[in-house]
Write a structure and sequence with these properties.
Layout (H helix, E strand, L loop, with lengths): L10 H16 L3 H11 L2 H18 L4 H8 L3 H12 L4 H5 L3 H17 L3 H13 L1
Length: 133
C-alpha cells in the first residue's frame, strides 16, 4: 500500500501541480522517461504500474478478471475493480493514446505470459524474449 502524507493540499493547488507534472512528463524523451520511472518509482511501484497496465490491455483482448488476476498475480478484488472501470470506459483516454504498432511488443510479451501458464513451449518463448530484450 502506498503511503500518503496526512498533510492536506488544497484541491486547486493539487490540480495545478498535477497538471504541471503531466505537462513536464509529456515532454520527456525516452531516456528521461525511463529515468523518471526507474528513479522516481520504487521497484514495487513499477511492478504495480506494469500489472495494472497489463490488466487493462488484457481486458481489451477479452480476458476475464479471474484470468487477469491469475496471470498477473493481482488480487481478485483489484482485477475486478479494474475490469469494472474498463467496462465503464474509464481507460478510453489512456487506450486512445496508443496505436497497435506501439503496443504490439507489449501485447506479445503479455500473450506469451498468458500462454506460458499452460504451454511449456510458450514458457520457453517468454524466457527467450526476456533474455533478448
Amino acid at each position: 500500500m502506498t503511503n500518503v502524507s496526512k498533510q492536506q493540499v488544497s484541491s486547486s493547488d493539487y490540480q495545478e501541480i498535477k497538471d504541471e507534472l503531466i505537462n513536464l512528463i509529456t515532454k520527456l524523451d525516452k531516456k528521461s522517461a525511463t529515468g523518471f520511472l526507474t528513479e522516481l518509482l520504487t521497484e514495487t511501484e513499477q511492478i504495480m504500474l506494469i500489472k495494472r497496465f497489463g490488466a487493462i490491455f488484457m481486458f481489451t483482448q477479452g480476458h476475464t478478471a479471474y484470468r487477469v488476476s491469475h496471470t498477473l498475480g493481482l488480487s481478485i478484488p483489484t482485477a475486478s475493480r479494474l475490469s469494472e472501470q474498463y467496462n465503464l470506459e474509464h481507460y478510453e483516454q489512456l487506450l486512445s493514446g496508443f496505436n497497435k504498432k506501439e503496443t504490439s511488443r507489449f501485447l506479445r510479451i503479455l500473450n506469451n505470459l498468458i500462454l506460458s501458464q499452460v504451454s511449456p513451449k510458450a514458457r520457453t518463448r517468454l524466457i527467450e524474449t526476456a533474455l533478448n530484450k
